[in-house]
Fold these 2 entries.
Entry 1:
Amino acid sequence: MTQPRDEWPQPDHIEEQFVSRLAAHYAPKPLTPARRVALDEALWARLQRPPHQTRLTPALATVAVAMLITCLSWSRLFMPPAHDGGPSVSTSAMSSTEPWEYELLYGRELTSTAERDDGAILPDDYRVIARVFLDK
Amino acid sequence: MMEEALLQEPPAVALELEQRFHLFVASHRERARRLAWRLVGGDDAAAEDVVQEAFIKAYRALGQFREEASLATWFYRIVVRQAHNYCRWRTVRETWSALWHGGPPAATAPASGDPLLRRRIAEALAQLSRSQKEAFVLVHMEGFSAREASVLMGKPEGTVKSHLHRALQALRSELADLAEDMEGNVP
């Protein structure tokens, strides 16, 4: 049977001794007079600050921490992954598109529908390959 | 005068309020500090910070309380809440510290008594739930009645008594050797 919530067996003699031993050993050192004066001064110094400054400080600190966390998370998100020796693809070659490639890819359909010889616009090495495989 | 609000009061009233506050600090400083110290797990600096914050709030609310007793009750309620907030933020800080520096910061707890026993008591108290710890510290260590503790914790008296009973059971089990010493000493 469970005990009702209000039921509170009063501590017996042994329990009281146990509790008072805990209380005796788990207590801070009393304040020294010098420390008490220092704490009083710190308290009055805080009270002298304008109230809005005292109230805003924790809020501003929280905002600053939140912004720092956001910045760190975002910067980590966009950082390149660490190179672990595995295969990697360079994007630099893909991004540098030569004018002839544009011409080859888009020029034909955009400019005219007529059959056109691409040989003239291809670089020399492509033309050599094309000659071997296409019998040109 | 120190505070903007007090500047608006007539000088005699402001002086009276300030004198009241001085008396209030002098009569509650030591108990509030001890209570905060026990609630934050034996950290001197944290306890002082918690108490200062509570005193500042009490100062601002001084004019609203005509009776010292009701101000004191309100003040200790603030201490309990501030200590809880501190513990919550400490958990966040420790988690953050563990993530970025690989381990929690070392806690320093200068205090009286046997350091090893004090540490064991702190660890045993830390294993209790928040409500159990608050109830135990308020009633068994600080000498508040169960009714007063219920007001400070904002919980029904029956619930506080239940927390007290469970906290005592848990501590006796955790610190069984101490409890057995007591039983051995009984004639």
Entry 2:
Amino acid sequence: MRKLLAFGLILTLTACGYGREVKNDEYFDDSQRARVQGRLSGSDGILVFGTDRSSSRQQDAQEGALGVNAYLWRATLDTLSFLPLSSADPFGGVIITDWYSPPATPGERFRATAYILGRQLRSDGVRVSVFRQELHNGSWVDAPVAQTTNTDMENQILARARELRSQTAAR
Amino acid sequence: MRKILLATTAVAAAAVFGPAPVSAQEAPTVRIGGFFRFNYAFTDQDYQNPAGTTGIPAGQRVANLGKSDFTSDMEVHVIVQGKAANGISYGATIEIQDDQNREATSGVATKTSLDTDEMYVWVSSPQAGQLRFGDEDGVVLGALATGFITSFGTGGMDGDWLDNVVGANNRPTYLAGGYLNDSTKVIYTSPQFFGFDFGASFGFNDGEGEDSGCEVLGANCDRYDSSGPFGTYRLRRKNEVQAALRYRGSFAGVGLAAMAGYIGSGVTKDNRLGSPGSGEGLNVGVFGLQATAYGFTVGGNYAFGRANGGLALLTNTGVDDRDLQQWSAGATYTMGPVTVGGVYSYGTSAGSEALPAARKDKIWSVGANYALAPGLALVAEYTGGSREEPGSNLNGPGRDKTEVDVFILSTRIAF
């Protein structure tokens, strides 16, 4: 009877989807090879047949909760973190900030909209639009933004993304 | 706060709108992995003439031993893996090794002969768990083994040290992962539920490798079942069963793993006329506990039950058939490329069943590893051990204790 109950419990857990697949590297391995930390080849053995999906799998894992490239997403959030955030859509890849007035120049304010354009870490994978307003007679009026500002922001994001990427690769 | 809000937004969005994990079909891959090591070993051991050696005066040596030697070893692994469109993963592992330890059959088996270690095919479903078929350790001292601290030096008590020792009498026994042989078996391991996974394994006979048929019905014949009335009795394990439950979890940054397992077996039958009775199968409980935090790993393992030292079978023909009791405890600390560790093992068993006293086996080991590069390490390790049983004359007449000390410097590479 107890065995039946135990079996029933297992079936119930399985049916409810509570189980997590245990991967081979979670099992004890008594080979001498397993006792050496790391692999000269960087992966578990040298691929002699088939396609190596380990890097794309890793990327998928990182981006499992995002619709866009994880490095660009994080880099954009980091770079725009000095602005108050208005909305962030991790699937559409859109970040919209609220207006922000620097303490040094209370007569002007900025907001930015960033679009992350895909899953690849590419130099054209992010687009930033910065908006600027000036305070005239108690009301905010649109003002032009230097042409290089958007490009500078994009470069800043790309540099930060590259930094995050290299940090991950070093692990 | 902003970051928290951001994180919350992303997590909440992912939770509500995120698609369920979908795994794509993967064409099979074949990988070749390998291991090579080069050791310098300094071995200081007892080696006296065995008791009763004719023509050798008491206390005199049969031979003298040198202390230093270079040795090498290798493994080649073939790893196959793929995933079907229905989400079932599958694969096979074939491990080839240089494993003719100590020229076991003098002049016949050379120390450079290759054989297979573990070889198995596996099928795994996220919902149902994994099945393995082949030559493998079972679940207790294999897949779910826990609490054995062997991740420093060449493996500490389970490292290369014993390969340098001359004479079976001078080698203490112990229990560690992979200790029971890889007899061909079927292994099931479950998915993980709330931190728990479990498994069981079964093998009909104590034999690994290709054939079930034999040229001669001898001691190493897999399907040897029992002696005839006038035959020779060979004590072997049969119907080996293992079952284990493992828990893994994390509490305040401390990773915990615990395992409770059971190893049981039957034995071949002694049907000889006037037989003193068949031997006794294994009936052993194994418990392991391990904690990991801040670079430290601390673990211990305890085994007890009906077996002789090193999970040998009891013959039950003598005056001493006491239970096996064996424990080991150890710790490692990893800081960047450096790992240091130590382990101690102590066991009591019947030993020679003709002697009333217990056999005691002790092993202590300390070691350090330095990872020069991923997959390339330098190793220094000291391991000592002793084996003792009153009345055994292990180390010559009147000497019932043997001791051995092995110091190893090693370089090892894995790809």
